[in-house]
Amino acid sequence: MHHFSYPPIRNGQAHKGHLIKVTGDGEMAIQPDSASVNLGIITEGKQLITAQQQNSLEATKVINALISLGVPKNHLQTFDYRIESDYDYDQGKQIFRGYKITHILEVKFDDISKIGNVVDTAVQNGVNHVSNIQFTVKNKESFYKQALVLAVNNANEKAKTIAETLKAVLIPTPILIVEGGSSVQPVYNQPGTFVKSMTATQLEPGQIILKANVMAEYQFTPSY
Question: Which domain range does residue 144 map to?
């Protein structure tokens, strides 16, 4: 049978080996207040110059329609522009089919209630690919701080529970606390080809779950 003895406590302080290490978690559920979406104009054609010109005309039409709808010009920017060669394959041989021009616009919103109308307007004016719809929150740092408070309190409650279980006296102020955090947000991602129609697109953002976590070390005085 092994017998353990604790070093004496000097000046009311716990020995440095008497540690409780815990993690703490906190999270906030937040309604999003901003968003972004990628709108694509994909054009195919046998002649490269003709396909480029057609794509450029359609992109200009989409941009003008969105600006007329009230989207600020600085909320529109080119996210991607690609020229690709398309091929068919027949018995292992490449057969040139034509060119595909892809122009992707990223549109940002300060008012998420407008996103469905913007998508519908874009599709009616030539957009045939919609993807990467993301809902976010502007004042994320403020909400993160609230989640961080919850995480610290959670760590403290865990340390208290462990100390009570050990019938030890917890020194409530941690000797070390390390912060780390992440936010998890819903992303409505619906890539694909959109058929032009007059139906209204309904996009539900859901909630953003913002999380914070900490690692904390507490000293305690054992009961002996």
Answer: 14-33+138-224
